[in-house]
Amino acid sequence: MPPTTTAPPTASVRHAPAPPPVRPKHPLGPWGHTVCAVLIVAVMLFPVYWMVNVSLQPRGSTITTPLIPTSLHFDGYARALHDQGRNLLTSLIVSVASVAFSLLVAAPAAYALAQLRARWAAPVLLAILFSQMIPGIVVANALFSTYNQLGALNSIGGLILADSTHGVPFAILILRAFMSNVPSSLVEAARVDGAGRIRAFCSIVLPVSRNALITAGLFTFLFTWSDFLFALTLTTTEDIRPVTLGLYEYLGAHVADWNTVMATATLSSIPALILLVAAQRYIAAGVGSGALK
């Protein structure tokens, strides 16, 4: 019999790994993106720079204002503080009080809409959304008629309530979105320990929702601080006058005194700028991570 031959075992073929895909290089490169970003930011911030630049110039027209100031004059700020200092204080009082009132009303309302599973929650939330679509001039005219009958025109309390008509619905929407993510086990643990609903809400839910409260309060402050429609409609004398209305009437009286006008605008921008810088780390933070911690 012829000898049987066995075929050699076939060796396993190993395929070389595919090379990683080569990403095409962008024609601008990283430095090009940086330069474009700087140019865009410079264009967007140029009006702010021009406002500060004009406020530091001597009294006169903005046409002759140099692009780069050679000497600084603070006469405009002195006149702005003298003429608009009371209006700035009025705006500050109304804005802070509107934030406090809006959060006081919106926080429990948002918690009820987020945690209490009731049939009326969806219609109420839909009504709040619809209220944001009502033009402000409609609300201002209705409030003027009501305030005129109640004798609440030219009052700080009337402006606080009027500005809260924007702050409360917006704060409810923001706080409800955050409070919906609060673990119910936290509230249940507090209830087991003997805390009531109000105690659990104040001791557990509010500290956990700190980021949401700061976010809602910040936007409410910005709404109120920049309000012009309610200030124009609900004030008829110079006793109670926010800075937005004071600046508007200041333009008509001193249209050539642009350094004082721009100084007033710069002073009115400082509180909002400080709050935005101080609260930016809380705006982007999520309530879920704060609750788990």
Automatic annotation (TrEMBL):
Matches recorded under SUPFAM superfamilies: MetI-like
The stretch of residues making up the signal peptide is: none
Q: Where are the transmembrane segments?
A: 31-52, 88-114, 120-144, 213-234
Please name one Pfam family that this protein belongs to: BPD_transp_1
ABC transmembrane type-1 domain span: 88-279
Location of this chain's protein in the cell: Cell membrane
Domain of life assignment? Bacteria
Annotated spans, Disordered: 1-21
Task: Return the InterPro entries for the record.
Answer: BP-dep_ABC_trans_perm, MetI-like, MetI-like_sf
- State the UniProt keywords alphabetically: Cell membrane, Membrane, Transmembrane, Transmembrane helix, Transport
How does the protein's chain sit in the membrane according to the entry?
Answer: Multi-pass membrane protein
Comp. bias (Low complexity)? 7-16
Just give the chief location class. Answer: membrane
Q: Which family does it belong to?
A: Belongs to the binding-protein-dependent transport system permease family.
Q: What is this protein called?
A: Carbohydrate ABC transporter permease
Q: Organism, per UniProt?
A: Streptomyces endophyticus
